[in-house]
Amino acid sequence: MNNDISINQVKYSKVNQLDFNNIPLGKTFTDHMFVCDYENGEWVNPRIEPLQPIATHPAAMALHYGQAIFEGMKAYLDPDGVPMLFRPEKNAQRINESADRMGMPAFPEELFLEGLKQYVAVEKNWIPPQEGSALYLRPFMYADEAFIGMRAATHYKFVIIASPSGPLYNKRIKLWAEKQYIRAAQGGTGEAKAAGNYAAAIRPTEIAKSKGYDQVLWLDAAEHQYIQEVGTMNIFFRVNDEFITPKLDGSVLKGVTRDSVMKLLQHLGYKVTEKLISLNEIKEASNNGSLKEAFGTGTAVGIAYIEEIGSDEDTIFVSEESPVAEKINDLLNQIKTGKVEDPFNWMVKAEIVTAS
Amino acid sequence: MNNDISINQVKYSKVNQLDFNNIPLGKTFTDHMFVCDYENGEWVNPRIEPLQPIATHPAAMALHYGQAIFEGMKAYLDPDGVPMLFRPEKNAQRINESADRMGMPAFPEELFLEGLKQYVAVEKNWIPPQEGSALYLRPFMYADEAFIGMRAATHYKFVIIASPSGPLYNKRIKLWAEKQYIRAAQGGTGEAKAAGNYAAAIRPTEIAKSKGYDQVLWLDAAEHQYIQEVGTMNIFFRVNDEFITPKLDGSVLKGVTRDSVMKLLQHLGYKVTEKLISLNEIKEASNNGSLKEAFGTGTAVGIAYIEEIGSDEDTIFVSEESPVAEKINDLLNQIKTGKVEDPFNWMVKAEIVTAS
């Protein structure tokens, strides 16, 4: 494998066309993409090139057999204007755990990190400086071999694209505890960040929204009783002064924000327990007054405060305020933007390492 | 919606370059593709055009969130050389059942059938005349909107491509009863022909093959005891003179071959029962001598004869011969190629309706 990344920059950046105070969600892309091809058993030709459509054979296996995985991460500017990445090594590891479950080749972690740093350095001007804004990064891998038949592909592309995202308003959300549809079951692909998991969630989420809820609370496949995740986020509950979150059982995504929130809560002196959590247990905690807060965690939103959980049977009231979750959210944002000390050395600078 | 299909044919067909007696599996494609776009809430611009790579934005949602479904079917030549389709209306219906589960728009069944007929007529010379050969057809739909975010896409492509396939040797297969990984769970997407289901099966199938087995026998997600499917096929067991097959519970694919085999077995006077089938029940039937045959059914292979089922605990011997399954397979093949009467009026002619 040759780790030398070739860089072909655009002559004229489109960044001046973007109003950083009014960024359309999810459909503005930066000038470039990072691309690497897998062929003959190795990753070759890592390159940063102008963002453009990729000529894709209609039999490209990802479109038929779903070998497609991704990561989500964000780049921020520190007070000196240096681009910063949040725990990128966690994403480099996780995409390979996803690859393993989906029968896809591992992508070298070193090249993942180096490619990401160089890419972010090239796209530095696209990182919104506004409070709460960031450059969303989307590394992904998919099977692009043209083949009709069920087997692992032999040709893949690893790509990173980026989209600036404006400040998020963390409105309090209402969850629908879904007892018919599931997102994932043990032995399935729930722990992988695989395209198919997200596709499975789209219709149930639409149904929940039509009932007036914001997100689906996903329950286990066997009994529809044990809590897995919320929407595309992990979930935490505060019962008195203990925080509980579903344990990783193979059907729960190993969230980087989940792990970070656990460490920050412990850093602040709270007890955090990973365990099997039933909906009934949360209902009892609500009834007896010990349920103080609940929130979702994920890269896209950060922390989403949960107000109530509805289901076919009843409504579980959570809370009108989320003081500890807000404190954690603020702390996390300040660490990511270099405004406070980084107690765990999470931040990595994306420095310019090549002349363009 | 405008159902008029525009046709742009290649000047020179590549069909003469193909050795019909030695067709490489899954990687030879015909000259054209059928394409239709979904935009602004409707399907527009149905067209048959030269097969070529499709310019695909790297943020195309199918590559990230897995909204991708497909169908598999085959075209045959009848003794007069007329192209024939096998129960195409079943595939037209099923792709829309898949679309519904995956939050994707329905494709008009009439246009599916008309597009398919015209497409097959254009590609008629690609249908191998050899016994047991056919032109495999792959209708599929995927989200091609460039968007980062979890919601149903607003832009899709519906495409049909085709690949000639040579005669299949139906070797007797050994199954591995998989008790760790699952293909699908109730409430999931198992009944949909969705890309993600296939991706989930790739790694477990590789593991089964490394143990010396040909395909995975998929069991239920909750107890790893009830039989769902085999590989990408439905499964039947013959216990004495009764045929049993897993009932459709939302995690089993509604196979067109499954339905056809059930009807043919009944036509020949056999009792067929759809029910919950446990691995223990099959083991007991093997032990007491009442298990006579087992076979998989699917479009790609037709009927696959099962010899034995291995698992962590023991091996269930099925049979060394599959006389009834072979009779059904022959009958099915003769119906598809117009060599015997078509008792259920399954075959549909793909006649040339436009001058080229």
TrEMBL record, chains A, B:
NCBIfam families recorded: ilvE_II, PRK13357.1
Cofactor (UniProt): pyridoxal 5'-phosphate
Record keywords: Amino-acid biosynthesis, Aminotransferase, Branched-chain amino acid biosynthesis, Pyridoxal phosphate, Transferase
EC number annotated for this UniProt entry: 2.6.1.42
Top-level taxon of the source organism: Bacteria
Known role: Acts on leucine, isoleucine and valine.
Catalytically driven reaction(s): L-isoleucine + 2-oxoglutarate = (S)-3-methyl-2-oxopentanoate + L-glutamate; L-leucine + 2-oxoglutarate = 4-methyl-2-oxopentanoate + L-glutamate; L-valine + 2-oxoglutarate = 3-methyl-2-oxobutanoate + L-glutamate
Pathway(s) the chain acts in: Amino-acid biosynthesis; L-valine biosynthesis; L-valine from pyruvate: step 4/4; Amino-acid biosynthesis; L-leucine biosynthesis; L-leucine from 3-methyl-2-oxobutanoate: step 4/4; Amino-acid biosynthesis; L-isoleucine biosynthesis; L-isoleucine from 2-oxobutanoate: step 4/4
Sites of N6-(pyridoxal phosphate)lysine modification: K193
An example molecular function term from Gene Ontology annotations: L-valine-2-oxoglutarate transaminase activity
Family to which this protein belongs: Belongs to the class-IV pyridoxal-phosphate-dependent aminotransferase family.
UniProt-listed InterPro entries: Aminotrans_IV (IPR001544), Aminotrans_IV_CS (IPR018300), Aminotransferase-like (IPR036038), B_amino_transII (IPR005786), BCAT-like_C (IPR043132), BCAT-like_N (IPR043131), BCAT_family (IPR033939)
Pfam families the record matches: Aminotran_4
GO biological process, one term: L-leucine biosynthetic process
Protein name: Branched-chain-amino-acid aminotransferase
UniProt xrefs under CDD domains: BCAT_beta_family (cd01557)
